[in-house]
Amino acid sequence: MHEPILQTSRLTLRHFMLDDASFVLQLLNSPTWLKYIGDRDIKTLQEAQSYLVNGPLLNYQLHGFGMCVVCLRTDGTPIGMCGLVKRDVLPELDLGYALLPEYEGQGYGTEIARGVLQYYQAKLGLKRLLAITIADNIASIRVLEKLGFQFEKTITLKDDSDELMLFAAHFNEKGTP
Prior knowledge:
Blueprint: E1 4-7, E2 11-14, H1 21-28, H2 31-36, H3 45-54, H4 56-63, E3 67-72, E4 78-85, E5 94-99, H5 108-124, E6 128-133, H6 138-146, E7 150-155, E8 164-170
């Protein structure tokens, strides 16, 4: 049941399943995840499964979308996640993405984020899409700029969280930013 949602020239995007827990454990504890996204306190396979059940899998049921697994098209190796998130604290949907460190800097983030953007813009008729990142995450900012996102303002999602840069992409009637 690894039916792809979309494919790009090098990548496939599919829904998470419970058997992806070991990959989730690896990704959420990778140095770049911890540095730029934060510690989710997922330290065991059971906690990774719970993360999947209460995160992506629940979002698929509630909204029809969520974070998905990014895999190499050649052999199906999971290398990251990408998708849309509906946050109560943001007025529009939020594009999110993360890759294992060994797959960063090869254009995969831009490639899959562009695919997700085009797919969901066509499917949902998005007029505007948001993305958030911390100011230190230069690679993520570059991806967003390549995709047509523009910086709007600095925000905090919680009282105790770091300041985040809020980016937005506005889509024209052709579905392009």
